[in-house]
Structures are given as C-alpha cells and as structure tokens.
Amino acid sequence: MVALSILLSLTTACAERHPGIEVNVWVEVSAQPAGAARVEFDVARLHVTSVRGVPCGEALARALNALQPVSQAWAHGGAAGGDSPLRADVTVPVDLSRSGRQGLATLRPPPGLWCGLELGVGPDAETATSLLVDARRAGAARRYLSASTRLVRVDAVPFSLEAAAPHDLTLQLDAGPTLASLEPAVTDARRDLLDTLLASLRWNAP
Fold first, then answer.
1. Which structural domain range is residue 74 located in?
2. pTM score, two decimals?
3. Does 14 fall in a domain?
C-alpha cells in the first residue's frame, strides 16, 4: 500500500512538471496568383528536410561575416547534421497546389532570443526530387522538377521564446506567381526556379 502511494505521488509529480517550450512551425502557402488563369495541378510538391530556429547571437555573427563568399541568406547544399534542440530533421511534402497553412515541425528549444528560422529543402527518397510540379492550364501541360538542395534563412525582428505557452511560428510562401510562370507543353529546365520559389518566403511575426 505504501509502495502504491509512492508510485501515485511520483506519477502526479511528473504530470505537474512544466512541459517546457514548444514551438510549432507552419508554412502558409498562397497557391494562385491574383488575376491569373486557373492552374490545375496533378502534382505540386516541395520537399522540406529540416527546420531550425536561429538564435540572435548566431544571426549577429553571420552579419559580421558578410564578406564571406557564401551568402548570408543562402547555403547551396544540404543542411548540416547533428542533434540540436533548435533543429528538427523532417520529411514533409508541402502541397503547393492549395492555399492554406501546413505543419512543418515541432521544436522544443531552451528559452532564448531568436532572429529567424532556417528551412532545409532536398530530394525525397521516393521521387528523388526536391520540387516536382505537373500542371495543366487551358489544356496545355507543364512540368518542372529539381533535385537540388537548399538551406534558406528567413530573418525576423528579434523575439523571445519563453515557457509560458506554446508558440506558433508561420512562414509565408507565395507559390502562385512562380508556378504560373511555367511555359505550357515545355519541360522547364531553369536552374533558378527553385530559388525563385524559396525567395518568396516571408516571415509572419508571432
């Protein structure tokens, strides 16, 4: 009986522990450009491989090293590995064909001051593509695919993460104009289309 009481006390204590900071990261997709003819998608998918919070100290260090040959906003190549409470390695296919908010990852970092988010994009295991689009408009077919990897940082006004409540952080992705620029009945080979799409990422402040 005593043992049962101790066990119940421990269970209650565990249940009352503060769960810590939880950061839910989302992407809000805008799929159709204003005034454009309707595009019908068979596939329109961007493959996200990682999500990471950027502490302000790191952002400041990068800003001070602005003369380095690698851009401060772009790193062409895969994201660096390693376990980190700031980072989640994921396999998330973002549907670019529908407007709305889609979940990317949940982070459980320590308290701190953040200055942005870093998004990794790369090929998935099934199709070996990071961006795959098959679409039709007025009966004409269009396609674009890319197997490139990207690591994109989206900067933000500094904000504090505290353990008071769950946090929801949202990135805006305006996919419509980029996808509408694909020419009908042509397999598009532009190397910059993935970059153009990712350049539309914007911060939705918490």
1. 21-204
2. 0.78
3. no
